[in-house]
Amino acid sequence: MTTVTQAPPAAGDSAVVVPPSRSSARLDKIWRVGFGVIVAALLLFLLAPLVVVILTAFNDRLVAFPPQGWSLQSFRSVPGYMFEALWLSVQVAALATVIAMLLAFPATIALVRGEMRGKAALLAFFQSPLQVPAIVQGLALYQLYIALNPFGVALRGSFTGLLIGHVILVFPFILNAMLGRVAAIDTNLELASYGLGAGFLRTTWLVTLPLMRPALIAAGFLAFLVSFDDTSISLFLTQVGGATLPLTLLYTSEQALSPMLYAMSALVIVFSLVLALIVDRVFGLRTVMSRD
């Protein structure tokens, strides 16, 4: 019996491409359509509340959706204390982010580059605010501030006391972002800088910080939003006359819902979108979210 063996294709012959079967092509099309439907539903779920808030803000007098009458009266009726609360929230969030970054950077260098005992315990201590509910942190700080009053340290209801609470709140977010980025940096780059005669500060400024820029921007943006949106800690550390914007909206909504609340919420949404666009224009969102 003679065995026939098929010769392999010659070097100049092109490879034979087997077209996909009809069933696999149909399944691939169904998967793509299903994935698109899921993404569209997710976007609708995320954006629908924002659209409802913005459209409701244009009601004439009543809180209704769809609006019963289109008007800008709700925007004109926003009281001045709302904008004061907005400015306070921006100040606290910005300062808390900057201070937390200044504290998190040396802590990150010590945890990643340093050789010392108890690094795991120190890291767990730094990340402990993530394990404790924010409302418990606010209550603990409230009790601490009361205990410090007899010693002449008046932090309850002060800007400094509120700022301390927000720094504690956002510090772990920035630290975690920095830890991952510093650990990914090639130490040979820093060693080369030292070998060329640069000191620690010059190496940090010219080598380490530029490589950490995407993580710093992303962490700062996240920390700002976390601080700006906080109510649990601010609830214990502020007074009614000097509350942040989320608390001011909460206090006002407990009395009565009005188009003015939706108008202020719409302005905050626009503010957040403008902030995201500024970050995108200046740094680029792809650069911010990149880990390379």
UniProtKB/TrEMBL annotation:
Entry GO terms, CC: plasma membrane
TM segment ranges: 30-58, 85-109, 121-142, 162-184, 205-226, 259-279
Domain spans labelled ABC transmembrane type-1: 86-279
GO biological process: transmembrane transport
Record's bilayer topology term: Multi-pass membrane protein
Keyword presence, Transport: yes
Main location: membrane
Keywords: Cell inner membrane, Cell membrane, Membrane, Transmembrane, Transmembrane helix, Transport
One Pfam short name: BPD_transp_1
Entry-linked InterPro entries: MetI-like (IPR000515), MetI-like_sf (IPR035906)
Subcellular location: Cell inner membrane; Cell membrane
Taxonomy, superkingdom: Bacteria
Annotated family: Belongs to the binding-protein-dependent transport system permease family.
Family matches, as PANTHER family: INNER MEMBRANE ABC TRANSPORTER PERMEASE PROTEIN YDCV
Protein name: ABC transporter permease
Upper classification of the organism: Bacteria, Bacillati, Actinomycetota, Actinomycetes, Micromonosporales
